[in-house]
User: What shape does this take?
Amino acid sequence: MKIKFPLVVVGAQWGDEGKGKIIDILAEEADYVVRFNGGNNAGHTIVVASEKFPLSLLPSGILQGKKLLIAQGAVIDPAVLLKEIDFFEKRGTKVKLTIDPRVHIVMPYHKELDRATELWKGKKATGSLHLGIGYCYEDKNNRFGVRFEDLISPNLLREKIEMFFPLKKRQLELVFGQKTELTKDRIYQEYVSYGWKLKKYLGDVSKKVQELLNSPNSPRLHGAKKLLFEGAHGTYLDGVFGTYPFTTAVYTISGSVFPYVGVAPQKIYSLAVVKAYTTRVGNGPFPTELLNNLGDELRNKGGEFGTVSKRPRRCGWLDLPLLRTATRLSGFDYLVITKLDVLAKIPTLRVCTHYKIGAKKYYEVPSLMTEFEKCQPVYEEFKPWRRDISQIRNFSDLPIEARKYVMFIEKNLKVPVKYVFVGPERKQTIPL
Assistant: This one.
């Protein structure tokens, strides 16, 4: 059974599952790749011919030369986006990009407020990268934001900065006790130049995507177009259904694609990216975390360091209650298992099948975070495989222990596995 479009790709854990690689692979067949949430605090890394391409704002279809759309649910740091565009254009890659006018812009004061808030929280800090993403979304929801349509209009941009910055400055200095060197003129001069450079990418992404979804009935578009929707982060960083408050400011589950892009609810297929073990960055509960040498081994073998942050990721065993809940929330049609190669030659291999608190069992994540923090994992042990699998390209050639591991995940989630990744390279992929 082939993977069907339109398709939304969702991380089923705490992010960093390997979404960039599967989007790059699926983009070969897609016509458009749409980034629908998050900012440059989330990165995707694609590896082709041993060269790494770290992305944080451009959709991962860039390497396949596809048409790229950034929908209003994303937020943009214009300096970061321009740097990524420049990188690919210097390599001779034409960037075919459209940005929705409703996209909100990360401003310099968002970053300073982000840093000040984390310092104020001290040991209870969320683990933010101080990139201002959360504050940008906060201003969006408070009707206090700067949108792309403002950025590309010098008069509107100046008006917004004149209105908003004095309050932000007072907040930094009087609430957090942090001095700032920012001024209205300095911000305006920097950002008006970004607007001139990005203006050519303006377009109504909401309307465009709806037209493309309806394209079988549109003679102007000459038949159905294949759309691939790219989400940032993972299920458990969802601002509501994640491990709150150790989350991002956005919705990350599949259904969020409709309001974040601005299209009517309809059938969009959903693909889960699942790392063969579990990782997370920052603070918050992590029932299967390995605080020992084995956790260190997984981190080092798997290169578990943030694409954007470079921070070491916390590592632990695969957690089925997490995945069951993610499946319920996003209605997955397909699974991709990544980094199976990292588990080769691991001396012990376990999977958390459920949690317990006293005599009570939990097969999904409890809705109360106070309960989740108390959950103790219950494991099933698997026989590990003792040889490197990074050069294998057929599922039947994998060691039987590795095949049983993959099939155990499929059976428990009742969702078919379509790809297994045995390395970071595009070619280190096993289709099922």
Notes: The mean pLDDT is 93. The radius of gyration is 22 Å. The chain has two domains: 7-95+207-431, 105-200.
